[in-house]
Design a protein that fits this description.
The chain is an alpha/beta fold. The protein has helices at about 25-30, 35, 70-75, 90-100, 150-160, 175-180, 195-200, 210-215; strands at about 55-60, 80-85, 105-110, 125-130, 160-170, 190, 225-230. The model is unreliable at about 1-10 (pLDDT under 50).
Length: about 230
């Protein structure tokens, strides 16, 4: 079983596969993933068509790691459709285990670089996008590899509905400063904060990730940044 080939016109930095998978997870990649995989579209893809008609909203998690956060949210919000984007095969296999064990019917997986998918989604088609503990690429010469940036913010602004939320969590001060430099400067986003708890505390409806727990154990302080898409001009 193999994941989709990397998209030719998108250069991805990072690992696509780690240690060998256990037999049970290999089986899920062969049996479950084809049923819930989001195929690379050639035209516009309305994400609501991926889910039952009762789906209220569609949320996306970019780089879902081992999948524990996405699975917890999908279980807590059965009326929301969740698209998880992750290129790391071991992480995809981990999420599939949660989907299988919890019988989560509202999860779909795009196992490739999300930058190849976003341009095919209609405007205002997502109500929330979560980017939790992305690779910070802390060296200045690697800054262009960071997911948050002017070009990506234009794309996220386009696909987010009015009032839609962009959640960014990081434990790296360089990435936190970078995010706070770029997102609030974008004309379409607002960062409503009233005090330190607005970025020190994980949102109440959000589950801890494995990486967050490791960061705290190592003495690093996570930041939880919540930005909102401004209403479009009529």
């Amino acid at each position: 079983m193999a994941s989709e080939k990397p998209t030719d016109d998108v250069r991805f930095y990072g690992r696509r596969k780690g240690k060998p998978l256990k037999a049970g997870r290999e089986r899920l990649l062969d049996s479950l993933l084809p049923k819930i995989r989001v195929e690379a579209p050639s035209t516009t893809l309305d994400p609501r068509t991926l889910f039952p008609a009762s789906c209220r909203d569609v949320w996306m998690e970019i780089g879902f790691g081992s999948g524990e956060h996405l699975a917890a949210q999908a279980e807590a919000e059965p009326a929301v459709g969740f698209i998880g984007a992750e290129v790391f095969l071991n992480g995809v296999a981990s999420l599939l285990r949660y989907v299988d064990e919890r019988a989560l019917a509202n999860v779909r997986v795009y196992d490739n670089d999300v930058r190849a998918l976003l341009p095919h989604l209609p405007a205002a088609s997502l109500s929330r996008v979560s980017l939790l503990f992305p690779d910070p690429w802390p060296k200045t010469r690697h800054a262009k590899r960071r997911f948050i940036g002017p070009a990506m913010l234009r794309e996220l602004s386009r696909v987010l509905a009015d009032g839609g939320e962009l959640r960014v969590a990081t434990d790296h001060p360089v990435y936190a400063r970078w995010t706070l430099q770029h997102v609030p400067e974008h004309a379409d986003f607002t960062w409503p904060v009233s005090g330190p708890d607005d970025w020190r505390l994980r949102p109440a409806d959000s589950a801890p990730t494995r990486y967050e727990q490791k960061a705290i154990a190592a003495g690093r302080t996570p930041m939880f940044l919540r930005f909102f898409r401004k209403a479009r001009a009529v």
